[in-house]
Amino acid sequence: RELLQAAIEAHLEGRSPMVDCEHRLKHKDGSYVWVACRGLAFRSEDGTPLRLTGTLVDVNDRKMSEDQIRHDAAIDGLTGLANRFLFLERLQDAILRSRLDPSYAFALLFLDVDRFQFVNDSLGHVAGDELLVAVAKRLKGCLRPNDILARLGGDEFGILLENIRTERETDGFTSRIHHELEAAFSVCGHEVYATCSIGIAFSTRGYDTPEQLLRDADTAMYKAKSRGRARHEIFDASMHDRAVQVLQTENDLRKALERRELRIHYQPIVSMATGKIAGFEALLRWQHPKRGLILPEEFIPVAEETGLIVPIAKWVLAESCRQTSAWQSSFPSASPITVSVNLSSRNLAQPDLIEQVNRALFQAGLQGGSLGIEITEGTIVE
Predict the structure, then answer these.
(1) Please, what's the largest Cα pairwise distance for the chain?
(2) If pLDDT is split at 50, 70 and 90, which confidence band does 345 have?
(3) Structural domains in the chain?
(4) Nearest-angstrom CA–CA distance, 86 and 139
(5) What whole-number distance in Å separates Cα of residue 360 and Cα of residue 354?
(6) How far apart are CA 278 and CA 336, in angstroms?
(7) What is the pTM of this model?
(8) Cα dihedral 207/146/172/153 (nearest 10)
């Protein structure tokens, strides 16, 4: 009403060429309808307004469509939560408020549903969507009145905890989340258990943008996953340094094969009965041009995560078979030398693994009995 009155007064006083305003009218059934009001004053010779004529046009459908577009732009269609766009806006507001009010602080929680891909792969995407909706519902039950929960995409959620400063406060909140997720979910007729890994970043570190906050909380979340899932980690500067190092390791590792920087060290396997060497275990090493000799625990996890372990394993198989064949030719005996090669779960999942092994044996001229494949207990569990 105030907006319409102001538009009419502005026109009558000569401050606008016409009345041009959109407002609501109450329908006789009690509902409200949006209309576009257009009006023009007829004036006397001295400019005094004599009467006002105009039109009212029903624009309710257009306004509803605009409202729906604004809603869709800010709300996740699956869970009904705020989406990434709206969440970033709220984070930006919180950052600005923390600058203006030193007493105000907040925390960002970055949550990822553990082993969610397994649900998608085994039960299907419909079941995966059901699980996400159910998880969102339980997370909402953990919130305080002013907290904001959003689905950031996929199986990732974000929570903005306002007026929170200490680790103890977030410990209590994350414990509540883990407790709420303990009970099984009923998904497409199946009983499914789900946990979350949580990364936490505090505003007290002095962030400038929401993206920086998300980056650090995401880094802490991956730290939680690496330590066993279903837990939380608070971001610190060493995590960022580690993330940068991992990225550099990945970049260097992509070039290591073509630059022939990878090395195989052969550890002897000695027969306890004869005291003689019965074979060797192939151990991968990386002779980095700047960092020197790098042990597998520093680069194999990166190789597995990025998929580089697949071409690396092919090379290890081929090279180990070639070297073993060369030893057998140089040192013939009744018991041919054998070699054992370690393969990860990522390698075992390759559909052409048997073909890879056969090709390595054929190209080296090695009998199948001379090659052993070793896998870890963790690989069997996966």
Answers:
(1) 123
(2) confident
(3) 2-66 (3.30.450.20), 75-235 (3.30.70.270), 255-381 (3.20.20.450)
(4) 18
(5) 10
(6) 8
(7) 0.63
(8) -60
